[in-house]
Write a structure and sequence with these properties.
By secondary structure, the chain is of the alpha+beta class. Helices cover 35% and strands 23% of the residues.
């Protein structure tokens, strides 16, 4: 599935995201969170890992939208 983060398009699927996040230790829970496997990650951390971009270059909303489209449960704080 094509998702856009910080203006760049990425072709990702659920399995690829799970593979990319495998072995990545979750940072402390801050802001919007996403469950991948049995771990809960801040969405900005996931966005940085899956896109290879600095997390200052995109919003949590962009990543939340992409992860939601891929079927990951996202908990938003507002």
């Amino acid at each position: 599935m094509r998702v856009v983060i910080a203006g760049f398009a990425f072709d990702l699927n659920r399995d690829e995201v799970e593979k990319l996040m495998g072995g990545v230790e979750p940072e402390p829970a801050v802001g919007d969170l996403v469950t991948i496997g049995r771990y809960v990650y801040p969405v900005k951390q996931v966005g940085e890992v899956i896109s290879g971009q600095d997390r200052r270059d995109f919003s949590a909303r962009e990543v939340t939208r992409a992860l939601d489209r891929l079927g990951f449960p996202v908990q938003t704080t507002q």
